[in-house]
Design brief:
With 188 residues, the protein is mostly helical. 82% of the residues lie in helices and 0% in strands.
Length: 188
């Protein structure tokens, strides 16, 4: 352990605040540069994360969780902050996925309600059976088995979920054409 690092711990344990301020000033800018180059985060997120790591460091020293270091203070701080960033990114990914799923479900519900008012389920099934096989599979996976776009892409060997979304859009247009044909036949 470095002499200055040992001094930081002793001073914090005695209740001094200045070592925290010193550590913050010493390592903050370096951490921001490092973290924004290593992770897809904004500068403000890096600043907040580093500040949280400093607070955790201080609490660990004061509580006795951290008595000695097997690395430098800088390494210890960066590790704490790195795991905070990883957790932040996981939460953001989870939230984004949930928001996208809710949006897709609302879209599906709105569409299905509108279509059910317009067409009977039997008409929809008949129209789907008139579509090319790849469209039949995609629409059945999406609407009847409730697969998400990533699962559909894997199941149907598409490049990615964006390809699946694009293909779904094309298939929906074809389905509406088929439904219109059926409604004209039924009217006549």
């Amino acid at each position: 352990m470095y002499e200055k690092d040992n001094e930081f711990i002793l001073r914090i344990r005695r209740g001094e605040e200045t070592p925290i301020v010193e550590m913050y000033r010493l390592y903050r800018d370096e951490f921001i540069i490092w973290s924004t180059s290593q992770f897809p985060i904004q500068i403000e997120q890096a600043k907040d994360t580093f500040q949280d790591a400093i607070i955790d460091f201080q609490e660990n020293v004061k509580s006795g969780k951290l008595v000695t270091l097997s690395s430098s203070v800088k390494t210890y701080l960066f590790q704490i902050a790195k795991y905070k960033i990883i957790n932040l990114l996981k939460r953001e990914k989870r939230n984004t996925y949930i928001e996208e799923t809710e949006l897709i479900n609302r879209e599906k519900q709105d569409y299905m309600l509108a279509e059910e008012m317009k067409y009977k389920l039997e008409d929809i099934k008949q129209a789907i059976s008139n579509l090319p096989e790849d469209c039949q599979k995609l629409l059945k996976l999406y609407y009847f088995k409730e697969y998400d776009m990533n699962s559909i892409a894997r199941e149907l060997n598409y490049k990615n979920s964006d390809t699946a979304k694009s293909k779904k859009s094309i298939c929906m247009r074809k389905l509406l054409i088929e439904l219109n044909k059926l409604s004209k036949i039924l009217v006549l």
